[in-house]
Amino acid sequence: MIKEKKTSVEIALFENILTFNMRLDLLHSFLEEIPEFIDVKKFGIYSQVGRDEAISYFMFEFENTLLKSFIVTLVIFLESEIITYCNELKKQLDKTESINDLRGTIIERLIEYTTKKIGTKLTAPEELWKKIDYIIALRHCIISFSGKTENFSFVKKIENLAKMVNGLSIKDNSVVLSKEFCKECAEIIRKFLENLYNDALKSTS
User: What Cα–Cα distance (Å) separates residue 68 from each residue in 54, 138, 193?
Assistant: First the structure.
């Protein structure tokens, strides 16, 4: 647990921690509603001879599409929270340069900004950084290649993520996700953000 702090900087950081946790909980709620979205009986579609295969295919594809959209939303959330985190440090510590002034990926800019501009030591385990990198790569595959891995340059990252987190697979050169996998990705991002804020609190205490 993070120790309670009293300075204005620490209070602001704690407020951000509460906010991003609330937003992640809302994303979890969306995942729980997915079975309702794919319940074809709600739309008056029932099993019939000759239609079962088509119905099963629809349910599988629709669910996988919703789960892929969740991963895309999750990474957008991560990037937004990283910028919020850095901007809060900039504001509270009266820094002139922002993360948006830097170049590179969101993770590259985060590392440069926090370690060189703010002076925070990042302590998240290497495995956690790798998982974040792989989740971002998965998002890129979904957006740029519709989840197809055949021509995706970083397919190895997706394969590595599948080894680290259950519920992700590649079938017929396409990524297939499960609700459990998406839940775990959300928790990975929660842990990553909590690590960032813990590091900031340690450096400002």
Answer: 21, 9, 22
Domain count along the chain: 1
Gap between the Cα atoms of 175 and 144, Å rounded:
13
Q: Nearest CA to 110 among 130, 139, 129, 82?
A: 82
Examine residue 71 and state whether it is found in any structural domain, yes or no.
yes
Give ∠ CA 4-10-11 in degrees, rounded to 5: 80
What pTM, to 2 d.p., does this model score? 0.85
126-181 per-position pLDDT tens digit? 999 999 999 999 999 999 999 999 999 999 999 999 999 999 999 999 999 999 99
Q: Are 99 and 116 in contact (CB under 8 A)?
A: no
| 101 pLDDT above the threshold of 70 | yes
Residue 3 lies in a domain: no
